[in-house]
Design goal:
This protein is mostly helical and 190 residues long. The protein contains 9 helices and no strands.
């Protein structure tokens, strides 16, 4: 019997499901996005989605994890291209972009925080996401020559500022002003 579709690997199919879920979660939010809608868009049965992702929260985490990985990869490349001596300005611009992206994803961030109180898989991802951001920002502030003794506090301050700006719906202008201020004060004041 001839095949109508080329064979795809498990990773390819999983990636396709995650990409569709990302788009729907971004467009419709967590609550309005159903596994059935994701399956319909992927052209598969609902139980096939569950074969790859046991629960909606597992799929939500996979979608968020992929977004974070893309963000961190892009941020790493952007910071690596910064000119020596301009690390502080590059970090300010990068932090501003982090806030802007999260403002555009406010619904997902709010759902992440809400779901982390009732879903162990989402709570674990939330903690892991913070560790990944902290590790990335730690490397970024190291490039800016922040003293080792201050590194952890500077990273925590930056992460909390990003989350605060996002959760309080700061304007992009407010975000830019705050991130540049913090990058300047926390990094060049040393």
């Amino acid at each position: 019997m001839a095949r109508n579709r080329p064979e795809r690997t498990r990773e390819d199919k999983s990636g396709e499901i995650v990409a569709i879920a990302q788009r729907l979660f971004l467009e419709q939010g967590y609550d309005a996005t159903t596994i059935a809608a994701i399956a319909r868009e992927a052209g598969i049965a609902t139980n096939v989605v569950h074969w790859y992702f046991a629960t909606k929260d597992d799929l939500f985490v996979a979608a968020l994890d992929a977004l974070q990985s893309e963000d961190l990869e892009e941020a790493h490349e952007r910071l690596a291209r910064s000119t020596p001596g301009e690390e502080q300005q590059a970090l300010g611009a990068l932090l501003t972009e982090f806030v802007w992206r999260r403002l555009d994803r406010y619904g997902l961030i709010a759902s992440l925080h809400e779901r982390s109180h009732c879903s162990p898989v989402v709570a674990e991802f939330h903690e892991r996401a913070h560790r990944r951001y902290a590790a990335y920002l730690g490397r970024a502030v190291d490039r800016c020559k922040v003293p080792t003794a201050d590194r952890k506090l500077v990273v925590e301050a930056l992460i909390n500022a990003v989350e605060g700006l996002v959760m309080h719906h700061a304007s992009k202008q407010q975000a830019k002003k705050m991130m540049n201020f913090l990058a300047e004060r926390l990094i060049t004041a040393r």
